[in-house]
Amino acid sequence: MEIDGSYGEGGGQILRCAVGLSTILNKPVRITNIRANRPTPGIKAQHYVVIKSIKEMSDAKTENLEIGSTKLTFIPGEFKGGNYKFDIGTAGSITLVFQALILASLKTDKKLNIKLTGGTDVKWSPSWDYFKHVFLPIIKKIGIKVDVNLIKRGYYPKGGGEAEINIFPGFNLKTLRLDKETVFSKIKGIVNIGQLSSGISKRIKHSTIRSLLKNNLQADITIEESKTLSPGTGITIWTDSKDIILGSSVLGERGIPSEEIGKNVVNNLLSEVSSNSTIDTYAFDQILPYIAISKGESTCIVREISNHAQTNMWLIKQFLETNFQAKQEENNFNIVVNKQ
């Protein structure tokens, strides 16, 4: 099977997801034009670690696996279980690597323990707290059980963050039925900060709480300070509901006032809440492979279908006979996913 890595948004998502699906479906794949739509095309450090780790844990075979390569041949093997440790070598995203490893290991019959070093809260990827408090609880509803442990945060450019994950065998994947709207009254959140003044994190926290209270939402926001190699800060908030979890993250950047970070993270979440979504825009594209391989019909409501989600739907259909239906309503889309 050959996949054009330049399709749609043409980023690293195609590479990570294709290798994951290749592994669990035992379908060899050749990917060309890898990250062709990016300023620096080809395999980056975090993608290299994804493929190298899957290769090591499953005795897979590869061709052209090197940083900068724009093509890759991947012949899957069988996961062996055990304890593993990998270093991304940069501030590359730990959460994106973990997501790819969870997908690739869905059919393992042995427990896996994986420790990674890299970036925990970096651009263009889920923050650690979004990964832990939004993404993982959602895939748990599908029947995927993992435990995670944050050892140390890592920011751009030096990284140095550490985290580990335990992936348990015996997944019995269920359909995801998130088609009932929910009223939210309480929001939880975490401000993370390292090598910066504590006043910054306090201003982010207070700005977030004020913005939530203006919209009649109670807030439970904590601050986590860490010793890190590079300075950094950010905030993740999520709805405190057993059934529906919507999340929002904003990473601090030089020149953006702390108060604006708090307002922005709330506005992002409110856009999801006001559209009556049952899964937020970012989580939707991240969970698509999991619901696509589950037997039966999965449903959810999303505010919009991002380019990432459209690209992932296309990729999944290259591997599986899956039907994606999207019915546009006034403020959202009703999604139905069927594995044929």
Describe this structure in words.
The protein is built from eight helices and 16 strands. With about 350 residues, the chain is of the alpha/beta class. It has two domains: about 1-170, UDP-n-acetylglucosamine1-carboxyvinyl-transferase, Chain (Alpha-beta prism); about 185-275, Dihydrodipicolinate Reductase, domain 2 (2-Layer Sandwich). The strands form four sheets. It has a four-stranded mixed sheet, covered by helices on one side. The protein has a four-stranded mixed sheet with strand order 5-6-8-7, with helices on one face. A four-stranded mixed sheet has the order 9-14-16-15, with helices on one face. α5 packs parallel to α6 (about 260-275). The longest helix is centred in the middle third of the chain and has 17 residues, at about 200-215. The radius of gyration is 19 Å and the shape is globular.
How is the topology of this model organized?
Blueprint: E1 2-4, H1 12-25, E2 29-32, H2 45-58, E3 61-63, E4 72-75, E5 82-87, H3 94-104, E6 112-118, H4 128-142, E7 146-152, E8 161-167, E9 177-178, E10 186-194, H5 198-214, E11 218-226, E12 232-239, E13 247-251, H6 258-274, H7 281-293, E14 297-302, H8 307-319, E15 322-328, E16 333-339
Parallel strand pairs: 1-2, 5-6, 9-14, 10-11
Antiparallel strand pairs: 2-4, 3-4, 6-8, 7-8, 10-12, 12-13, 14-16, 15-16
Radius of gyration: 19 Å
Give unreliable regions as ranges: none
Q: What portion of the residues fall into strands of 2 or more residues?
A: 25-35%
Chain-averaged pLDDT: 95
What is the CATH-assigned architecture of the largest domain? Answer: Alpha-beta prism
Query: Which structural class best describes the helix and strand composition?
Result: alpha/beta
